[in-house]
TrEMBL record:
Entry keywords, A to Z: Autophagy, Cytoplasm, Endosome, Lipid-binding, Membrane, Transport
InterPro entries: AH/BAR_dom_sf, PX_dom, PX_dom_sf
UniProt subcellular location: Cytoplasm; Endosome membrane
Organism of origin: Collybia nuda
Topology within the bilayer: Peripheral membrane protein
Listed name of the protein: Sorting nexin-4
């Protein structure tokens, strides 16, 4: 457990800018990404800038080709927007799960510096019974896909992607997918000098030598946030298991004695049996038994409609945070590329200077140390210590130095630009996270309030019945 002084959700605010309802059947979400922003509202170069709003929804799952082996589920995707890239303010289309997969994979490829949310796990069925065409499964997937599109639509860069526009508007989506693969937006990355460097130079285990304190703080914040999500998911999984077991267990014998719904049901049966023995109070005891049954059903209903959605949302937020962590890791890789290239350039330059010193007859004054001396001896053994070979080698080193200088300059510019984008991405992710945390916890609180109100009504109805019992002594 975390200490009381560690608030893993300390970034969550319960006051957010209000946004208009744009006429969707569901209440339109509010907050950053659902309002039109202007440059005047931005306070700094790293603040995100929205050019308009994009409000999305996923509805009406339908089983297509139902009687064939190629059956699949399609979903109605709708949007309401004022972004100029869209040809209509209310685009809509039907898409299947594989279309969402294509959208996500290509957004990741086209926008490597953006936090692209993950899709729901194709086989994550802990809280669902039945096959992939069951109403429970389709509704759960619909909700997950709805949340995925919400996250994309909140992003000021992703919401203006031509691929996102086509996802909602295109009537020939398969043609558009092939065209996008054949002609992706932006220039194709050409292999550079960094791609030719040995894997021993640039490897997955290398670490940034001059870390930026801003990104260290971000990573620490992400660690705390994910730790809080993991702890919360574990605790509420335990609560869920103790409150109501799965349907499969309920049909048989529960494996543990911690199923409260089953316990209240058993208690109701016992009280009903007691009523048959106590003829004078049979009716009140039957009423009490019915109340216990109602309370058992209420517990089960609350677990399914409040606790289960909380668990799903917690896990979804965790995968969203993993996508954010991946962007931070990629930024570190860009900085690492620059650092390693700079070191490589220094080494090549030192070798060129050593050869120049040997040719000029000042090898002893170069100060290059034992390694340079040993290299000279090795060259002598190989027969490569004559001035002609040294001059040719210097010429090749000069060409490599020029290439490396250009590569270092490019890597430095890329690292700086990626760092600026990452700072904006963190602000965007923070806005999205706050909106989702408020939504998730508000829904859970509303569900708990509804449960306790209904429970109080049930127990208050039985109190007068119990009070009317008279026992002759």
């Amino acid at each position: 457990m975390l200490g009381d002084d560690e608030d893993v959700f300390d970034s969550v605010t319960w006051e957010s800018p209000t946004g208009p309802n744009y006429g969707f059947e569901e209440a339109a979400p509010t907050g950053p990404g659902f309002r039109q922003s202007t440059v005047a509202e931005s306070e700094g170069p790293h603040d995100p800038k929205w050019e308009g709003y994009l409000i999305t929804s996923v509805k009406d799952p339908v089983k297509e080709l139902a009687e064939t082996k190629d059956a699949y589920v399609s979903y109605l995707v709708q949007a309401k927007t004022n972004l100029p890239i869209f040809s209509t303010p209310t685009p809509s289309s039907r898409r299947r799960f594989q279309d969402f997969v294509f959208l996500r994979e290509n957004l990741v490829r086209d926008f490597p510096a953006c936090v692209v949310p993950a899709l729901p796990d194709k086989h994550r069925l802990e809280y669902i019974t039945g096959d992939r065409f069951s109403p429970e499964f389709m509704e759960r997937r619909r909700l997950d896909l709805h949340r995925f599109l919400q996250r994309v639509s909140r992003h000021p860069t992703l919401q203006r992607s031509t691929l996102v526009r086509a996802f909602f508007e295109s009537t020939e989506w398969h043609v558009h997918m092939h065209q996008h693969i054949a002609h992706p937006p932006g220039p194709e990355p050409s292999p550079g000098i960094i791609d030719n460097i040995s894997d021993t130079l640039l490897n997955a285990f290398a670490r940034v030598r001059k870390p930026d304190e801003r990104f260290l703080a971000m990573r620490e914040h992400v660690d705390k946030f994910e730790e809080g999500l993991v702890v919360s998911e574990r605790l509420y999984n335990r609560v869920r298991g103790r409150t109501s077991v799965s349907e499969a267990k309920r049909d048989g014998n529960p494996e543990s004695g911690e199923d409260l719904t089953a316990d209240y049901h058993d208690l109701a049966v016992a009280v009903q049996g007691l009523g048959f023995l106590e003829s004078g109070i049979t009716d009140p005891l039957n009423h009490f038994s019915n109340t216990l049954l109602e309370f058992s059903a209420l517990l089960r209903h609350t677990a399914q409609t409040t606790t289960d959605p909380l668990l799903v949302h917690l896990h979804s937020l965790l995968t969203y945070s993993h996508a954010n962590r991946a962007v931070l890791k990629l930024r570190d890789q860009k900085q690492l590329d620059f650092e390693e290239l700079s070191d490589y350039l220094s080494g090549v330059t030192a070798e060129r200077d050593r050869l120049a010193a040997v040719i000029s007859g000042h090898a002893g004054s170069t100060g290059l140390g034992l390694s340079a001396y040993l290299k000279d001896r090795v060259d002598a053994i190989r027969g490569a210590d004559d001035d002609r070979s040294r001059v040719e080698k210097m010429r090749k080193l000069d060409i490599k130095i020029k290439e490396l200088q250009d590569a270092v300059t490019t890597a430095h510019e890329t690292s700086d630009a990626f760092s600026d984008e990452t700072l904006r991405e963190q602000a965007i992710f923070q806005y999205a996270k706050e909106a989702e945390m408020k939504e998730m916890l508000s829904n859970f609180a509303d569900g708990q309030i509804e449960f306790y109100k209904a429970a109080m009504e049930e127990w208050e109805r039985i109190i007068p019945v119990i009070q009317r019992i008279r026992v002759d002594v």
